[in-house]
Amino acid sequence: MSLIWSPIPNTIRTNKLMFNPTRRPPAIAAALSQEKATFDFTRYMEEKAARVERALDASVPLREPRLVHEAMRYSLLAGGKRVRPILCLAACELVGGPERAAMPSACAVEMVHTMSLIHDDLPCMDDDDLRRGRPTSHRAFGEAVAVLAGDALLSLSFEHVASATPGVSPDRVVRAIAELGRSVGSEGLVGGQVADISSEGVSGVGLEQLEYIHLHKTAVLLEAAVVMGAIVGGAGDEAVERLRKFARRVGLLFQVVDDILDVTKSSEELGKTAGKDVATDKATYPKLMGLERSREFAEELKREAYEQMAVFDEAKAAPLLALADFIAYRNN
Ligand code: GRG
Asked: Which of 12, 196, 259, 310 could form a Cys-Cys staple with 285, CB 3.0–4.6 A?
């Protein structure tokens, strides 16, 4: 692995991933350029994303009944930044596990993420037309097939970890599956979505409720990705809990940045409908604390995430730290 952060092109494109390091605040850019041992994030992301892409493709063959498998593949293989699966692989490798042990978990987390996007876009939820730069699943396949494709991806995610994880003890595989289940259910994604729906059109949604929604709608799956990777990678309890805290901060950071991008970028740049939060008068960090304070809050979250990583070997922790950076300074 190259240990050189620079030279790095100003705009890096990986699949649909765009990362512009010039957007870093000057202090961070200076700190990074002073680091003796940094690592080639672009190459890392390209290599990991390519392997994740191949594994996802193989995980959902075009079987009968063709229609539902087409719909599953349409959404799952539509690009996306693949942040969650790469976090999972990076966590596994940080604690000394091989990439192959975490690949089924990485794919499972992306399946759950994709199904949550399919359901989130439905007319009964956000009623969106555009996702990952193409028509949403229900626009392409109709509502019934979109619901079923989401259900099938959810079910496959658990099956895939259980049946395809190589060389990991059954106890650890079961723990990883339990982690995924917790992240999906009524105290995870579903709980976050219910809280989000319940707060729609309600005036006076405060920061505490907003944080609950984001921790459950978004952070919980990034947390599952990292924790599953650590578990199948053989991590001890203390390392797992540190990585959990790291991922939770990064997850919240992800959503704060998402809120900021919604008001600062176009639909074309985002690959999904921009400005929707304002149009629907949704509670967001920029709305509740203003754009500048939201950016400062994002920096605080990133700092707190970094703190959790201080105990790990610097070179081994570099991918997770660079991913936190990428999440903080991404453009879409
Ligand atoms: C899980 C059973 C079950 C139901 C779903 C609809 C729902 C319940 C939850 C909504 C979850 C949701 C859509 C959260 C938003 C998460 C988020 C920030 C999505 C954007 O993620 P990116 O930017 O997207 O990583 P790409 O396309 O790059 O993967």
From this structure: 259
